[in-house]
Automatic annotation (TrEMBL), chain A:
Its EC number is 7.1.1.-. It holds the Pfam family Oxidored_q2. InterPro entries: NADH_UbQ_OxRdtase_chain4L/K, NUOK/Mnh_C1-like. The keyword Oxidoreductase applies. Belongs to the complex I subunit 4L family. NDH-1 is composed of 14 different subunits. Subunits NuoA, H, J, K, L, M, N constitute the membrane sector of the complex. It is a multi-pass membrane protein. NDH-1 shuttles electrons from NADH, via FMN and iron-sulfur (Fe-S) centers, to quinones in the respiratory chain. The immediate electron acceptor for the enzyme in this species is believed to be a menaquinone. Couples the redox reaction to proton translocation (for every two electrons transferred, four hydrogen ions are translocated across the cytoplasmic membrane), and thus conserves the redox energy in a proton gradient. It comes from Phocaeicola faecium. The chain crosses the membrane at residues 6-24, 29-50, 62-84. It is found in: Cell membrane; Membrane. It catalyses: a quinone + NADH + 5 H(+)(in) = a quinol + NAD(+) + 4 H(+)(out). This is NADH-quinone oxidoreductase subunit K.
From TrEMBL, chain B:
It is found in: Cell membrane. Its EC number is 7.1.1.-. The chain crosses the membrane at residues 6-26, 33-55, 61-80, 92-113, 145-167. Keywords: Cell membrane, Membrane, NAD, Quinone, Transmembrane, Transmembrane helix. This is NADH-quinone oxidoreductase subunit J. InterPro entries: NADH_UbQ/plastoQ_OxRdtase_su6, Nuo/plastoQ_OxRdtase_6_NuoJ. Belongs to the complex I subunit 6 family. NDH-1 shuttles electrons from NADH, via FMN and iron-sulfur (Fe-S) centers, to quinones in the respiratory chain. Couples the redox reaction to proton translocation (for every two electrons transferred, four hydrogen ions are translocated across the cytoplasmic membrane), and thus conserves the redox energy in a proton gradient. It comes from the Bacteria.
From TrEMBL, chain C:
The chain crosses the membrane at residues 6-23, 30-53, 91-111, 123-141, 147-165, 177-198, 218-242, 254-277, 283-304, 311-329, 349-370, 390-409, 424-445, 466-486, 506-527, 611-628. Residues 140-433 form the NADH:quinone oxidoreductase/Mrp antiporter transmembrane domain. It is found in: Endomembrane system; Membrane. NCBIfam families: NDH_I_L (TIGR01974), PRK06590.1 (NF005141). Its main location: membrane. It is a multi-pass membrane protein. This is NADH-quinone oxidoreductase subunit L. Residues 73-124 form the NADH-Ubiquinone oxidoreductase (complex I) chain 5 N-terminal domain.
Amino acid sequence: MEIHVIHYLIISTVMMFCGIYGFFTRRNLLALLISVELMLNATNINFAVFNRYLFPDQLEGHFFSLFGIAIAAAETAVAIAIIINVYRNVKQVLTDDITDLKG
Amino acid sequence: MSISLQEIAFYVVGACIALCSILAVTTGRILRAATYLLFVLFGTGAIYGILGYTFLGAVQLMVYAGGIVVLYVFSILLTRSDKDMKYRQNRAKLISVLATVIVGAVLVLFLTLSNGFVLNTIPQGVELPMETVGHALIGTDKYEFILPFEVVSVLLLACMVGALLIARKEKNN
Amino acid sequence: MDYTILILALPALSFLVLALAGMKMSHRVAGMLGTLSLGIVAVLSYMTAFSYFTAERTSEGVYPTLEPWNFEWLPFTSSLHIDMGILLDPISVMMLVVISTVSLMVHIYSFGYMKGEVGFQRYYAFLSLFTFSMLGLVVATNIFQMYVFWELVGVSSYLLIGFYYTKPEAIAASKKAFIVTRFADLGFLIGILIYGYYMNTFTFTPTEEQLMHAGMVLPWALGLMFVGGAGKSAMFPLHIWLPDAMEGPTPVSALIHAATMVVAGVYLVARMFPLFIGFAPNALHMVAYVGAFTAFYAAAVACAQSDIKRVLAFSTISQIGFMMVALGVCTAADPHEGGLGYMAGMFHLFTHAMFKALLFLGAGCIIHAVHSNEMETMGGLRKYMPITHITFLIACLAIAGIPPFSGFFSKDEILTACFQFSPVIGWVMTIIAGMTAFYMFRLYYGIFWGKENKELHEHHTPHESPLSMTFPLMFLALITLVAGFIPFGHYVSSNGHAYDIHLDWSVAGTSIVVAVIAIALATWMYAREKQPVAEMLAKRFSTLHRAAYRRFYMDEIWMFVTKRIIFRCISTPLAWFDRHVVDQFMNFMAWSTNAAGESAQPIQNGRIQSYTQWFLGGIVVLTIILLIF
């Protein structure tokens, strides 16, 4: 009936580093964004877990996760809008091809 | 030592999350990656549920799985991607990325394991009542969150308008 | 006397206006502006002189030294401060008159001479700058103000010599003048610093206590100051810049390189005269010997030159030598007891400024008429240019020392002072005076008589200059005629008391006889169409003639010293060191910075993914470090 806190943390760590790996290796912007979502989720899990673990009577971590989800949604919406706009202009969504703003 | 149903559920979900995370960042097809992400998000929602934060789990399912992933799928279909995302990777770069990631992961795990809460466990199964969440969300006292709630609502509005503006097709005269 | 500030302010103002807005003006407006401001300055100077010399003398029988303006500019200690102000005493008032008169004449003359030249406005702007600096120099209240204006004068001289900046000779001449005088000014500056350091003051009249403090270094300070004066006044061996400075426009030569700037050195010695006579009489006598040698050397060279402006330049050097000798032979402050030379030198400065300006302006008219400086293109010009001829003759007679022209009186005083000092110097100077008469009349006959270059003159008939050019000639000729009768000793003398000029007829008679003989010789040799004597002499003493024509190879000696010795033994190794050690070190620094940047550049590839990868790697490394330690 009891699960070690460490197990939660291991799961979130795996998620986090999968996100990081994807962020480093992917070249498609949408795939990059997917990796970012993985990282965000990993942190959200940590917030919730630590809230439950340290202060079960309070709700700070819980709400932090909640707002994190809201903000992730906003971020995704804007990022996808930008990606679509970029795609419309350069017909490509690969990081290597988007160099117009590079100094 | 008996294994409870909840424990079994947790480990199954955990394994599912880990596997799907890895697949989401290694698969060659972007649409599959989005699908694996969806599974990861489901799993995350389940974890919230196991922790007793059922409301948070529900929000996770609605916003992420229901909203964001659909958005991903739409945008993937709107943009032309190569079916196979196996781009030629520089071997040295790949090695360095892997080294960084693995060393980083090991480091974090080491810190977690050596931190002292190894033996501690989390009280399970106590569901956070919806009433408490509702009161805390729109209360004005200490540890109550009406202000961030309103701010997030403004932020969401702003980002909706911004997203529309950015993605809007410019009229060509 | 508060209005005296205007004497300085007006030329400065007109310089600013002409320099900043001159290009927007027409030639006429720009010239009128400069001339008008100079006219007001001249009137103010005459007013100052009149009211100063008609004012009451003090109880000691001298004219008071006034300071209508004095502004403490840079205070160092309570007694050591650099001021800017106006000092009026007999010699500065006299110089005000000389400068403003000659400058005004040159301004008027330039209307005709520079007509239609490119850069007419610039020319007038520089003239105003020069006049401002020169006036500031003579009214300086302290040695440092004098130095500041001294350098300003040098700059404006540089600018005006190089006025025709498209001509390589003019550029070379302006650089030469600048560098040589700057070299000499180094001595002046060191002298000033020694003076200031030991005396703790920059004023011309230190107190007894300060003088005691200076002690033995005062002669050194004064001697070094004289080096600066020698550079500016073209004393041997620093004279080499002055003949080349004739590359500038002729009115400029008249103003700067004949009448005013080159006598700044004489003025400096006169200004420091009380200190020279009281504490460094030997330094003063050195001045006399340098002056005498310069006078002789320049006179000898002048006898062989063919460029009329060069002849006048060497005659200027020679005459400044006379003034230096006059100051140098003084043995006491009392004009009756050996201080006559001071008055004589100042008097000669005054008269020489007038007739030498006249000579240069006349030469300008001639050059304007025949478009050449060379004597062989002239000859027989008297029938074409009567006014120029007569005024030039007056000036020649004045410089030769024929009564009643002004030069006679001042030169006679100098010779008298020389004979009082030592008969040797007296006779030497008398002979040089004879040489002066000889080469001046050689010049005169070469231009106006002698063999006419008919071919050239038929092709382009010489003509008399317009009134704007002849008026200054006539005005200056008038001054030359009457200036000798000014009771100069009443106004300026070594101790300030009135001194009656009385002619010593034994000296005067001798000098007149020598001058007349020299003129007669020149007439015999050069006045006729054919000049067999002159040619025969030139052939007989061809080595000497060529040496004199090449100015006794002084320029070559200087070139040898600078190029062969200084350049080769000092500058070249220094340049090598600079180029190969200092510069290379700097280059290495620049190169290594560049190389470091180049090698770090690939990291900055503009890919956010690799940046974040570095970022994460950094965090990992830092965490490991924190864990280990």
